[in-house]
Amino acid sequence: MQNHMSYMDVVGNNIANVNTVAFKSSRVNFQDILGQTVKGASAAQNGRGGTNAAQIGLGTSLGGIQTLMTQGSLQSTGKSTDLAVQGDGFFVESDGTQTFYSRDGGFDVGTDGSLINPNTGLHVMGWVANAAGKIDTQQPLANLVIPYGAQIPAQATQNMQFSGNLDASLAPGGIVNTTMTAYDTLGVPHTVALTLTKDATTANQWNLTGSYDDGTATAGLTLGPINFDSATGALTTPSDGLVDVSLSGTAIASPPLAFKLDLSKITQFSGGSQTTLLSQDGSQSGSLVSFAIGASGEVSGVYSNGLNQTIGQIALAGFVNPAGLTRSGQNLWAASSNSGTPTVGAPDTNGLGTISTGSLETSNVDLAQQFTNLIIAQRGFESSSKVITASDQMLQTLVNIIR
Protein backbone atom coordinates (compact mmCIF):
# COMPACT_ATOMS: atom_id res chain seq x y z
CA MET A 1 0.00 0.00 0.00
CA GLN A 2 2.87 2.35 0.78
CA ASN A 3 4.47 1.67 -2.60
CA HIS A 4 1.21 2.41 -4.40
CA MET A 5 1.04 5.69 -2.47
CA SER A 6 4.49 6.50 -3.88
CA TYR A 7 3.17 5.56 -7.32
CA MET A 8 0.27 7.97 -6.80
CA ASP A 9 2.68 10.71 -5.73
CA VAL A 10 4.73 10.31 -8.93
CA VAL A 11 1.63 10.32 -11.14
CA GLY A 12 0.25 13.34 -9.31
CA ASN A 13 3.52 15.21 -9.81
CA ASN A 14 3.48 14.40 -13.54
CA ILE A 15 -0.09 15.68 -13.90
CA ALA A 16 0.69 18.80 -11.89
CA ASN A 17 3.55 19.65 -14.27
CA VAL A 18 1.72 18.98 -17.52
CA ASN A 19 2.15 22.68 -18.44
CA THR A 20 5.64 23.18 -16.97
CA VAL A 21 8.19 24.27 -19.58
CA ALA A 22 10.50 21.40 -20.60
CA PHE A 23 9.33 19.21 -17.69
CA LYS A 24 10.45 15.57 -17.86
CA SER A 25 7.99 13.02 -16.51
CA SER A 26 8.84 10.13 -14.18
CA ARG A 27 7.69 6.57 -13.88
CA VAL A 28 7.75 4.05 -11.03
CA ASN A 29 9.41 0.64 -11.29
CA PHE A 30 8.25 -1.99 -8.79
CA GLN A 31 10.24 -5.06 -7.75
CA ASP A 32 9.15 -8.18 -5.93
CA ILE A 33 10.67 -9.01 -2.55
CA LEU A 34 12.56 -12.27 -2.01
CA GLY A 35 9.97 -14.96 -1.26
CA GLN A 36 9.71 -17.30 1.73
CA THR A 37 10.86 -20.78 0.63
CA VAL A 38 8.43 -23.42 1.87
CA LYS A 39 10.05 -26.27 -0.01
CA GLY A 40 13.29 -26.29 -1.88
CA ALA A 41 13.85 -27.55 -5.40
CA SER A 42 15.07 -31.11 -5.95
CA ALA A 43 16.85 -32.80 -8.82
CA ALA A 44 15.57 -35.83 -10.72
CA GLN A 45 16.57 -39.13 -9.06
CA ASN A 46 15.50 -42.75 -8.58
CA GLY A 47 13.27 -42.69 -11.64
CA ARG A 48 11.41 -39.59 -10.51
CA GLY A 49 11.54 -36.13 -12.07
CA GLY A 50 12.72 -33.13 -10.15
CA THR A 51 10.45 -30.83 -8.19
CA ASN A 52 10.31 -27.04 -8.23
CA ALA A 53 10.80 -24.88 -5.21
CA ALA A 54 7.70 -23.65 -3.41
CA GLN A 55 8.06 -19.97 -2.45
CA ILE A 56 5.61 -17.47 -1.02
CA GLY A 57 6.25 -13.91 -2.09
CA LEU A 58 6.57 -11.29 0.63
CA GLY A 59 5.21 -8.35 -1.31
CA THR A 60 6.65 -5.58 -3.48
CA SER A 61 9.29 -2.94 -3.10
CA LEU A 62 9.96 0.33 -4.88
CA GLY A 63 12.68 -0.56 -7.36
CA GLY A 64 13.24 2.98 -8.54
CA ILE A 65 11.75 6.14 -10.02
CA GLN A 66 13.03 6.72 -13.54
CA THR A 67 13.08 10.08 -15.30
CA LEU A 68 12.00 9.98 -18.96
CA MET A 69 14.25 12.34 -20.91
CA THR A 70 12.26 12.17 -24.14
CA GLN A 71 11.84 15.25 -26.34
CA GLY A 72 8.86 17.49 -25.65
CA SER A 73 7.10 19.20 -28.53
CA LEU A 74 8.09 22.76 -29.46
CA GLN A 75 5.64 25.59 -28.99
CA SER A 76 6.17 28.82 -30.92
CA THR A 77 6.17 32.00 -28.82
CA GLY A 78 7.54 34.57 -31.25
CA LYS A 79 9.89 35.98 -28.59
CA SER A 80 13.46 36.15 -29.86
CA THR A 81 15.00 35.27 -26.48
CA ASP A 82 12.86 32.13 -26.06
CA LEU A 83 15.00 29.14 -27.00
CA ALA A 84 14.35 25.42 -27.20
CA VAL A 85 16.79 22.56 -27.61
CA GLN A 86 15.78 20.18 -30.38
CA GLY A 87 17.63 16.97 -29.67
CA ASP A 88 20.00 16.14 -26.84
CA GLY A 89 21.63 18.73 -24.62
CA PHE A 90 20.98 21.17 -21.81
CA PHE A 91 21.51 24.89 -21.42
CA VAL A 92 24.28 25.71 -18.94
CA GLU A 93 23.33 28.21 -16.23
CA SER A 94 25.31 29.52 -13.29
CA ASP A 95 25.08 31.84 -10.30
CA GLY A 96 28.84 32.26 -10.21
CA THR A 97 29.28 29.45 -7.68
CA GLN A 98 27.16 26.53 -8.81
CA THR A 99 26.47 25.24 -12.30
CA PHE A 100 23.04 23.98 -13.26
CA TYR A 101 21.58 22.47 -16.42
CA SER A 102 18.16 23.14 -17.90
CA ARG A 103 15.96 22.54 -20.93
CA ASP A 104 13.92 25.64 -20.07
CA GLY A 105 15.02 28.34 -22.52
CA GLY A 106 12.71 31.14 -21.43
CA PHE A 107 15.52 33.69 -21.31
CA ASP A 108 15.67 37.48 -21.25
CA VAL A 109 18.23 40.28 -21.15
CA GLY A 110 19.04 41.59 -17.67
CA THR A 111 19.69 45.19 -16.68
CA ASP A 112 23.44 44.61 -17.05
CA GLY A 113 23.00 43.22 -20.56
CA SER A 114 23.50 39.60 -19.46
CA LEU A 115 21.40 36.84 -20.96
CA ILE A 116 19.60 35.37 -17.94
CA ASN A 117 16.73 33.17 -16.87
CA PRO A 118 14.35 35.79 -15.40
CA ASN A 119 12.68 33.20 -13.14
CA THR A 120 15.86 32.21 -11.34
CA GLY A 121 18.28 35.05 -12.11
CA LEU A 122 20.87 32.53 -13.29
CA HIS A 123 23.23 33.58 -16.08
CA VAL A 124 23.24 31.72 -19.39
CA MET A 125 26.73 30.45 -20.10
CA GLY A 126 28.65 30.34 -23.35
CA TRP A 127 31.64 31.88 -25.08
CA VAL A 128 32.16 35.59 -25.76
CA ALA A 129 33.53 36.59 -29.18
CA ASN A 130 36.65 38.72 -29.54
CA ALA A 131 36.76 42.11 -31.25
CA ALA A 132 36.92 40.44 -34.67
CA GLY A 133 33.80 38.35 -33.97
CA LYS A 134 35.71 35.05 -33.57
CA ILE A 135 34.64 32.36 -31.10
CA ASP A 136 37.09 30.10 -29.26
CA THR A 137 35.14 27.19 -27.76
CA GLN A 138 38.30 25.95 -26.02
CA GLN A 139 38.12 28.86 -23.60
CA PRO A 140 36.29 28.57 -20.24
CA LEU A 141 32.58 29.35 -20.21
CA ALA A 142 31.54 32.88 -19.34
CA ASN A 143 28.35 34.88 -18.86
CA LEU A 144 26.86 35.87 -22.22
CA VAL A 145 26.38 39.62 -22.48
CA ILE A 146 24.43 41.59 -25.08
CA PRO A 147 26.36 44.89 -25.17
CA TYR A 148 23.62 47.26 -26.35
CA GLY A 149 25.14 50.52 -27.57
CA ALA A 150 28.61 49.03 -28.04
CA GLN A 151 30.42 50.64 -30.93
CA ILE A 152 31.95 48.89 -33.92
CA PRO A 153 34.67 50.93 -35.67
CA ALA A 154 34.51 52.08 -39.27
CA GLN A 155 36.06 49.76 -41.85
CA ALA A 156 37.74 50.90 -45.03
CA THR A 157 36.55 49.28 -48.25
CA GLN A 158 38.91 46.58 -49.47
CA ASN A 159 36.72 44.52 -51.76
CA MET A 160 33.68 45.26 -53.88
CA GLN A 161 31.74 42.96 -56.20
CA PHE A 162 29.37 43.73 -59.07
CA SER A 163 27.09 41.50 -61.09
CA GLY A 164 24.90 42.10 -64.11
CA ASN A 165 24.98 42.24 -67.89
CA LEU A 166 26.30 44.54 -70.60
CA ASP A 167 24.15 44.65 -73.74
CA ALA A 168 26.09 42.91 -76.53
CA SER A 169 23.90 44.57 -79.16
CA LEU A 170 24.77 48.09 -77.99
CA ALA A 171 26.35 50.17 -80.77
CA PRO A 172 30.07 50.98 -80.57
CA GLY A 173 30.60 54.06 -78.40
CA GLY A 174 27.53 53.26 -76.34
CA ILE A 175 27.90 53.72 -72.61
CA VAL A 176 26.58 52.11 -69.42
CA ASN A 177 26.72 54.14 -66.21
CA THR A 178 26.67 52.92 -62.61
CA THR A 179 27.80 54.22 -59.22
CA MET A 180 29.40 52.74 -56.15
CA THR A 181 30.16 53.99 -52.65
CA ALA A 182 33.48 53.27 -50.97
CA TYR A 183 34.34 54.02 -47.33
CA ASP A 184 37.70 55.31 -46.09
CA THR A 185 39.33 54.48 -42.74
CA LEU A 186 37.11 56.98 -40.91
CA GLY A 187 33.96 55.58 -42.47
CA VAL A 188 33.47 58.61 -44.75
CA PRO A 189 31.53 57.54 -47.87
CA HIS A 190 32.92 58.43 -51.29
CA THR A 191 30.75 58.10 -54.38
CA VAL A 192 32.49 56.90 -57.50
CA ALA A 193 30.75 57.19 -60.88
CA LEU A 194 31.72 54.35 -63.22
CA THR A 195 31.33 54.45 -67.00
CA LEU A 196 31.59 51.45 -69.31
CA THR A 197 32.03 52.46 -72.93
CA LYS A 198 31.79 49.89 -75.71
CA ASP A 199 35.01 50.02 -77.73
CA ALA A 200 34.60 51.21 -81.29
CA THR A 201 37.45 49.18 -82.76
CA THR A 202 37.84 46.00 -80.71
CA ALA A 203 34.92 43.60 -80.61
CA ASN A 204 33.62 42.47 -77.21
CA GLN A 205 35.72 45.07 -75.41
CA TRP A 206 34.52 47.76 -73.00
CA ASN A 207 36.60 50.58 -71.55
CA LEU A 208 36.12 51.20 -67.82
CA THR A 209 36.57 54.74 -66.48
CA GLY A 210 35.38 56.59 -63.40
CA SER A 211 35.32 59.87 -61.52
CA TYR A 212 35.06 61.00 -57.90
CA ASP A 213 35.47 64.12 -55.74
CA ASP A 214 39.01 64.25 -54.35
CA GLY A 215 38.29 67.25 -52.13
CA THR A 216 39.28 69.99 -54.52
CA ALA A 217 37.95 68.87 -57.89
CA THR A 218 36.52 65.96 -59.79
CA ALA A 219 39.26 63.41 -60.32
CA GLY A 220 39.20 60.89 -63.15
CA LEU A 221 40.00 57.19 -63.10
CA THR A 222 41.19 55.08 -66.01
CA LEU A 223 40.63 51.46 -64.99
CA GLY A 224 41.45 49.79 -68.28
CA PRO A 225 39.60 47.61 -70.79
CA ILE A 226 37.55 44.54 -69.99
CA ASN A 227 36.88 41.84 -72.57
CA PHE A 228 34.26 39.13 -73.02
CA ASP A 229 34.18 35.79 -74.79
CA SER A 230 32.22 36.13 -78.05
CA ALA A 231 30.70 32.65 -77.66
CA THR A 232 29.89 32.38 -73.94
CA GLY A 233 29.54 36.04 -72.95
CA ALA A 234 31.80 35.43 -69.93
CA LEU A 235 34.46 37.89 -68.80
CA THR A 236 37.93 36.99 -70.09
CA THR A 237 40.01 40.08 -69.25
CA PRO A 238 41.07 40.54 -66.55
CA SER A 239 41.34 36.77 -66.11
CA ASP A 240 40.54 36.89 -62.38
CA GLY A 241 37.88 39.57 -62.83
CA LEU A 242 39.64 41.94 -60.42
CA VAL A 243 40.27 45.62 -61.16
CA ASP A 244 42.44 47.71 -58.82
CA VAL A 245 40.94 51.05 -57.79
CA SER A 246 42.81 53.76 -55.88
CA LEU A 247 41.31 57.02 -54.60
CA SER A 248 43.45 59.86 -53.27
CA GLY A 249 43.05 63.52 -52.39
CA THR A 250 42.30 65.75 -49.42
CA ALA A 251 38.81 64.29 -49.06
CA ILE A 252 40.21 60.80 -48.45
CA ALA A 253 41.25 59.88 -44.91
CA SER A 254 44.72 58.30 -44.89
CA PRO A 255 45.01 58.21 -48.71
CA PRO A 256 45.13 56.35 -50.89
CA LEU A 257 41.91 54.37 -50.48
CA ALA A 258 42.75 51.22 -52.44
CA PHE A 259 40.36 48.35 -53.04
CA LYS A 260 39.67 45.61 -55.58
CA LEU A 261 36.63 45.74 -57.84
CA ASP A 262 35.40 42.24 -58.71
CA LEU A 263 33.67 42.10 -62.12
CA SER A 264 33.82 38.33 -62.57
CA LYS A 265 30.02 38.04 -62.41
CA ILE A 266 29.49 40.58 -65.22
CA THR A 267 28.38 39.04 -68.54
CA GLN A 268 27.84 40.32 -72.09
CA PHE A 269 24.59 39.16 -73.68
CA SER A 270 22.05 40.89 -75.83
CA GLY A 271 19.01 42.07 -73.92
CA GLY A 272 19.75 45.28 -72.06
CA SER A 273 22.40 46.49 -69.66
CA GLN A 274 22.08 46.37 -65.88
CA THR A 275 24.69 46.26 -63.13
CA THR A 276 24.15 45.64 -59.43
CA LEU A 277 26.48 46.02 -56.45
CA LEU A 278 26.44 42.62 -54.73
CA SER A 279 28.67 43.36 -51.77
CA GLN A 280 31.36 45.56 -50.34
CA ASP A 281 33.19 45.19 -47.04
CA GLY A 282 33.55 48.84 -46.02
CA SER A 283 31.26 50.53 -43.51
CA GLN A 284 30.72 53.47 -41.23
CA SER A 285 30.97 53.08 -37.47
CA GLY A 286 27.84 51.77 -35.78
CA SER A 287 26.35 50.73 -32.45
CA LEU A 288 24.61 47.51 -31.44
CA VAL A 289 20.83 47.88 -31.76
CA SER A 290 19.57 44.27 -31.70
CA PHE A 291 20.66 40.66 -31.86
CA ALA A 292 19.56 37.29 -33.20
CA ILE A 293 20.33 33.71 -32.19
CA GLY A 294 20.83 31.02 -34.82
CA ALA A 295 20.28 27.26 -34.77
CA SER A 296 23.97 26.73 -33.98
CA GLY A 297 23.70 28.98 -30.92
CA GLU A 298 25.66 31.89 -32.39
CA VAL A 299 24.52 35.26 -31.06
CA SER A 300 24.79 37.77 -33.93
CA GLY A 301 24.75 41.48 -33.17
CA VAL A 302 22.94 43.79 -35.58
CA TYR A 303 24.56 47.23 -35.77
CA SER A 304 23.15 50.58 -36.83
CA ASN A 305 25.45 50.66 -39.87
CA GLY A 306 23.81 47.51 -41.23
CA LEU A 307 26.61 45.12 -40.31
CA ASN A 308 26.16 41.83 -38.47
CA GLN A 309 28.90 40.44 -36.25
CA THR A 310 29.05 37.47 -33.92
CA ILE A 311 29.13 38.57 -30.27
CA GLY A 312 28.79 35.23 -28.51
CA GLN A 313 28.01 31.53 -28.63
CA ILE A 314 25.54 29.68 -26.42
CA ALA A 315 26.89 26.46 -24.91
CA LEU A 316 25.05 23.16 -24.49
CA ALA A 317 25.98 20.29 -22.19
CA GLY A 318 25.46 16.62 -22.92
CA PHE A 319 25.52 13.63 -20.56
CA VAL A 320 26.13 9.92 -21.11
CA ASN A 321 23.20 9.19 -18.78
CA PRO A 322 20.93 12.26 -18.63
CA ALA A 323 18.37 10.26 -16.63
CA GLY A 324 20.97 10.21 -13.84
CA LEU A 325 20.69 13.97 -13.31
CA THR A 326 19.07 15.09 -10.07
CA ARG A 327 16.24 17.61 -9.94
CA SER A 328 17.12 20.91 -8.27
CA GLY A 329 13.73 22.61 -8.65
CA GLN A 330 12.89 25.62 -10.84
CA ASN A 331 13.32 23.48 -13.99
CA LEU A 332 16.99 22.96 -13.12
CA TRP A 333 19.11 19.81 -13.01
CA ALA A 334 22.40 19.07 -11.28
CA ALA A 335 25.05 16.57 -12.28
CA SER A 336 25.31 13.42 -10.16
CA SER A 337 27.76 10.57 -9.82
CA ASN A 338 25.62 8.49 -12.21
CA SER A 339 24.93 11.13 -14.87
CA GLY A 340 28.50 11.22 -16.08
CA THR A 341 30.73 14.23 -16.64
CA PRO A 342 29.08 16.87 -18.82
CA THR A 343 30.40 17.28 -22.35
CA VAL A 344 30.16 20.98 -23.14
CA GLY A 345 30.16 22.21 -26.72
CA ALA A 346 28.43 24.33 -29.32
CA PRO A 347 24.96 23.29 -30.51
CA ASP A 348 24.86 20.89 -33.46
CA THR A 349 28.29 19.44 -32.55
CA ASN A 350 29.29 16.23 -30.77
CA GLY A 351 25.74 14.87 -30.80
CA LEU A 352 24.29 17.96 -29.14
CA GLY A 353 20.98 19.25 -30.47
CA THR A 354 20.20 22.44 -32.32
CA ILE A 355 18.52 25.56 -30.97
CA SER A 356 15.10 26.72 -32.11
CA THR A 357 14.62 30.46 -31.64
CA GLY A 358 11.25 31.88 -30.66
CA SER A 359 10.06 28.56 -29.23
CA LEU A 360 9.85 26.75 -25.91
CA GLU A 361 9.87 23.03 -25.23
CA THR A 362 6.67 21.80 -23.63
CA SER A 363 6.31 19.07 -21.01
CA ASN A 364 6.65 15.49 -22.24
CA VAL A 365 3.82 14.32 -19.95
CA ASP A 366 1.25 12.16 -21.74
CA LEU A 367 -1.88 13.23 -19.87
CA ALA A 368 -4.01 10.32 -21.10
CA GLN A 369 -1.42 7.81 -19.93
CA GLN A 370 -1.12 9.54 -16.57
CA PHE A 371 -4.86 9.29 -15.95
CA THR A 372 -4.61 5.61 -16.78
CA ASN A 373 -1.75 5.26 -14.30
CA LEU A 374 -3.85 7.15 -11.75
CA ILE A 375 -6.56 4.51 -11.97
CA ILE A 376 -4.00 1.69 -11.86
CA ALA A 377 -2.40 3.15 -8.71
CA GLN A 378 -5.81 3.56 -7.08
CA ARG A 379 -6.90 0.04 -7.94
CA GLY A 380 -3.60 -1.39 -6.73
CA PHE A 381 -3.95 0.43 -3.43
CA GLU A 382 -7.56 -0.72 -2.99
CA SER A 383 -6.67 -4.32 -3.87
CA SER A 384 -3.83 -4.35 -1.35
CA SER A 385 -6.13 -2.99 1.33
CA LYS A 386 -8.69 -5.72 0.57
CA VAL A 387 -5.99 -8.37 0.93
CA ILE A 388 -5.21 -7.02 4.40
CA THR A 389 -8.93 -6.93 5.29
CA ALA A 390 -9.44 -10.50 4.07
CA SER A 391 -6.38 -11.72 5.96
CA ASP A 392 -7.63 -9.98 9.10
CA GLN A 393 -11.02 -11.69 8.79
CA MET A 394 -9.36 -15.10 8.35
CA LEU A 395 -7.23 -14.57 11.45
CA GLN A 396 -10.31 -13.39 13.36
CA THR A 397 -12.16 -16.59 12.36
CA LEU A 398 -9.20 -18.68 13.54
CA VAL A 399 -9.18 -16.88 16.90
CA ASN A 400 -12.91 -17.47 17.29
CA ILE A 401 -12.47 -21.22 16.57
CA ILE A 402 -9.89 -21.48 19.36
CA ARG A 403 -12.22 -19.73 21.77
How would you describe this protein?
- The two termini are 32 Å apart.
- This protein is 13% helix and 42% strand.
- The chain has two helices and 31 strands.
- Strand 27 (326-329) and strand 28 (332-334) form a beta hairpin.
- By secondary structure, it is mainly beta.
Low-confidence spans: none
For the termini, the CA-CA separation is: 32 Å
Number of helices: 2
Q: Report mean pLDDT, rounded to a whole number.
A: 94
Question: Helix share of residues?
Answer: 10-25%
Query: In terms of structural class, how would the helical and strand content be classed?
Result: mainly beta
**Beta strands, count:** 31
* Number of domain units: 3
Largest sheet: 10 strands, antiparallel
Name the shape in a single word. Answer: elongated
Rounded radius of gyration (Å): 37 Å
Q: Classify the beta-strand content into a percent band.
A: 35-45%
